[in-house]
Write a structure and sequence with these properties.
The chain has 286 residues and is of the alpha/beta class. The N and C termini lie far apart (43 Å). 40% of the residues lie in helices and 15% in strands. The protein has a 6-stranded parallel β-sheet with strand order 1-12-9-8-6-7. Strands 2, 3, 4 and 5 form a 4-stranded parallel β-sheet that branches. Bound molecules: NADP nicotinamide-adenine-dinucleotide phosphate (NAP). The site of NADP nicotinamide-adenine-dinucleotide phosphate has 25 residues, from helix 10.
Length: 286
């Protein structure tokens, strides 16, 4: 078998176009264009690239770019004061604190100041709690992007065996909860899992977010399974994921490439969350 490739670049473009139309409708109905406040602290080059892309696509979707940049030596109180002012500003629909923050800052304390309604990264305790209880809220962007990919490719979830490798707050945990919400039978693997390949082979849907290049090989994949590779690793020969793509593609039914799979979905879902947040804040039925 040669797996069908799940084209995240194309699906992300569709999502961004839908968001752009939603923004235009909101404005045409007398609302205000959503505003996204990305907050970058310090000058980490990778973070600068991520934030620049988020801002560019935010503007392309018709939203206001309300970016803020703080120096790397800013103190906790000043960073907190900035978050508080964005929280109180009605022009700001969504706040995204780019992680990691410099080591001397308490990032969790800063995240905790973001109101749940403006938490477009879905990372606050309030939104994580809503997700854990199966109640509506803003969802973390990467796992919600995976759900859109699964739906776009008509991957059956109800009653399916889903295995998630990784249990981070950013990806693994919310991923498992979103799959559970859709009535998959979910198993979560982590660094202490005994015989990872044996557990993964149960999966109809296998989502790998471990941060270890090539962790999942063909021996860990059931023939015909859908394999979603969240991992991103920058090597001398380009980007790679957590899955040995060439080997797994010979066994799986569908697979996400790296790059061009899950990666482009993350920013698309950030924009979708920002529109959702703005619509709800403006009382327009969102
Ligand atoms: P993380 O916080 O480091 O979490 C990694 C998880 O994998 C942990 O739960 C860890 O288990 C588990 N793990 C580590 N080694 C394992 C092993 N040998 N077998 C099974 N599980 C193992 O990473 P993350 O933030 O979730 O990110 C995961 C990957 O996704 C990274 O490559 C990251 O760059 C990428 N990522 C991509 C996007 C995107 O937009 N595509 C977004 C976010 C992250 P323990 O809990 O036991 O330590």
């Amino acid at each position: 078998m040669t797996a069908a490739v799940i084209d995240g670049t194309a699906v992300a473009r569709q999502v961004r176009e839908e968001v752009g139309k939603g923004v235009a409708q909101l404005v045409a109905a007398g609302g205000t264009a959503p505003g996204l406040a990305t907050v970058l602290i310090g000058d980490d080059p990778a973070s600068e690239v991520y934030v620049r892309n988020k801002r560019r696509l935010c503007v392309a979707a018709g939203m206001a770019d309300l970016h803020r940049h703080l120096p790397g030596d800013v103190d906790q109180a000043s960073a907190a004061a900035l978050i508080d002012s964005l929280a109180a500003d009605p022009a700001v629909s969504g706040i995204l604190l780019q992680l990691p923050t410099p080591a001397h800052l308490d990032a969790e304390a800063l995240l905790a100041r973001i109101p749940a309604a403006k938490d477009v990264d879905g990372l606050t305790t309030a939104n994580a709690g809503l997700l854990a209880q199966g109640r509506p809220g803003l969802r973390p962007c990467t796992p919600s992007g995976v759900m859109v990919l699964l739906d776009q490719y008509d991957v059956p979830l109800q009653g399916a065996e889903a295995v998630v490798v990784g249990r981070s707050v950013l990806v693994g945990r919310p991923m498992a909860q979103l799959l559970l919400e859709r009535n998959a039978t979910v198993t979560i693997c982590h660094s202490r899992t005994r015989d990872l390949a044996e557990v993964c082979r149960r999966a109809d849907v296998l989502v790998v977010a471990a941060g270890i290049p090539g962790l999942v090989g063909a021996d860990a994949v059931k023939p015909g399974a859908t394999v979603i590779d969240v991992g991103i690793h920058r090597g001398e020969d380009g980007l790679h994921g957590d899955v040995d793509t060439a080997a797994v593609a010979a066994v799986a039914g569908r697979i996400t490439p790296v790059p061009g799979g899950v990666g482009p979905m993350t920013i698309a879902m950030l924009l979708a969350n920002t529109l959702t947040a703005a619509t709800a804040q403006q009382g327009s039925g969102g």
